[in-house]
Model the fold of this input.
Amino acid sequence: MTTSTSSNGISRKDYIFSITIIGLFFFIFGFVTWLNGILIPFLRTACELNDFQAYFVTFAFYISYFVMALPSSAVLKKTGFKNGMSLGLFVMAVGALIFIPAALARNYALFLTGLFIEGTGLALLQTASNPYITIIGPRESAAKRISIMGIANKFAGAIAPIILASVILKDSHILDERLAGAADALSRAVILDEMAQRVIMPYIVMAVILVLLGLLLRFAHLPEVDTEAEDEAVGEANLKKTSIWQFPHLLLGVVALFFYVGVEVIAGDTIIRYGQSLNIAMDSAKYYTSLTLVAMILGYLMGIIFIPKYISQGNALKICTILGVIFSLGAILTPDHIVFTMPFIDLVTFKPLDLVLPLTVLFVALLGLANALVWPAMWPLAITGLGRFTKTGSAMLIMAIAGGAILPLVYGKLAVDFSTQTAYWICVPSYLVIMYYAFIGHKAGK
Done:
């Protein structure tokens, strides 16, 4: 009796189990990552910040990828994929627990420290899981597998801000009235302290779940992927390469991914605050990040259906970059007074609701559709042919996630100096850089 195997020599049973486990991790990535969309307006109020200061939430979270990606690669070489992922979960749990003293002291620096440590754990998880999901099956269908992972990621991201908002911003209008009526600084401080402490219980629950998952992973059978064996398939031409810097398609991919992650984070994490700035009540604005991620899920489903049967990974990337420019210009140029109601479903309670939605905000949400297939298509293009440099190349691509630290901060500065709508101009040149990679850059040096 024979057992069917994947192209990597892994049995079909192990292949399906591995895909399921990695899908769970991508769910965790999404849940933790897209909480930032609600944390930004929450901490802006609780810690009395302006827009620029509030976007240090994304800076602290995403800069950890830049700092920790190469060390993560070194850790993975010693621990292997499975143990490295388990360690990443434990590190994330530590970051979540730091929210307890941060909330008790209402100390923004401590909140940022917790976010940085959470990002550190995620960097380790992502450095392991992204090449794993790429290599575990056929290269030509890698974008399809990453799209499946993306659905798990973005569905978690769609429900995360709704769940957190229901706990920490459940009566935001009453809170605003109390703050407006506070007679002195002491009364205001008491109200803000009470508000800040609302995050304690959600983050304790998160820490417990992360620790349990880390322990379960220790005992799970997750096959190791032999990247060294995979190197042999690259061919003799690659044997002449002596440095990672000899792969221009990778280096350009790192640059393009930097700008991509920046615009992805801007689309998901600025949209709630953008809605608030247009005088939209939090009852509607809290769903805006979910709207962006639903658009991304739609894009991932299209990727699963059409790649590679009807459209190549490269052509999907080209289409996405063109849509990114169009939707960015729509968000910037549409008058902010054009507002309509849109039927929507609360993804946690499944109750239908009428979402108050400015058209300019809808264009920001549609960036989710434009962004959906960029990562799944760009990642395989960038690591193709790296051979024995695959792990280092993957770490460099993870470092590019620092775009999510820098570009939203630029957006925040532009929002303070000009307006929250004008600030979206940062997206246009970013998509043009990605477009260059889609049409020309990924062929460099090949």
In short: Residues 12-229+246-443 form a domain with the Growth Hormone; Chain: A; fold (CATH 1.20.1250.20).
